[in-house]
């Protein structure tokens, strides 16, 4: 079955500390992987995506993610968290073809403490 | 180029009423997707449409829900005889129709439906 698992429902990180959000996927075809961020009451903003090539991808707002095929993982990282990063983060997987539904994880809520 | 637009942003209905959610895709986008986000859950795919055609409705509940994307005007997600369990955020996404490359989905701000 195709699925995305985000093991951590809620994470609290001190401002300035590093962050890693975990994502594992199960997908039958070649996966295209995404991280989205959702601020309260807002829509989803794409942080970064992985299609192929270099397994370390850079995104907006200083985020990066590493694709590890052997572990079926696509973890999101940031070296130094800012208070404005507090939001909900969703990992998603899809296929190349247009019209393919994205499969989302349940999300990880990030809180940032001062 | 305006992003994906959804309206209303918030919608309150009483049980048994109808809810109509509208989505205007980005200019030049011919693919529309609807997703539903229940409380404490991720987004779940509902339906994928192109102009005047439903391509994939595998995620749509079998009853009371319908979607359309007419030749002119926005895409509409219609929920008849709403029940409390329909309370959720409904997101629309659109993507362009470019062959030979991945067609990224751009999401709208969502419509938050509350059923009393």
Walk me through the structure.
The complex is a heterodimer of chains A (114) and B (116). Chain A is mostly beta strands. Chain A is 0% helix and 51% strand. In chain A, the strands form three sheets. In chain A, strands 2, 5, 6, 10, 11 and 12 form a six-stranded mixed β-sheet that branches. Chain A starts with a strand and ends with a strand. With 116 residues, chain B is mainly beta. In chain B, the strands form two sheets. In chain B, strands 2, 4, 5, 6, 9, 10 and 11 form a seven-stranded mixed β-sheet that branches. A four-stranded antiparallel β-sheet of chain B has the order 1-3-8-7, with no helix packed on it. In chain B, a hairpin with a 6-residue loop joins β7 (65-68) and β8. The N and C termini of chain B lie far apart (36 Å). The interface between A and B is medium-sized, with 24 and 30 residues.
**Number of discrete helical segments of chain A:** 0
Largest interface: A-B, 24 and 30 residues
SS-based structural class of chain B? Answer: mainly beta
Quote the average pLDDT of chain B: 92
The Cα radius of gyration of chain B reads 14 Å
Order of helices and strands of chain B: EEEEEEEEEEE
The biggest sheet of chain B amounts to:
7 strands, mixed
Portion of residues in helices of chain A? under 10%
Q: List how many beta strands of chain B DSSP finds.
A: 11
Low-confidence parts of chain A, pLDDT < 50 over ≥5 residues?
none
Average pLDDT across residues of chain A? 91
In terms of quaternary structure, the protein is heterodimer
Total strand count of chain A, please? 12
> In one word, what is the shape of chain B?
globular
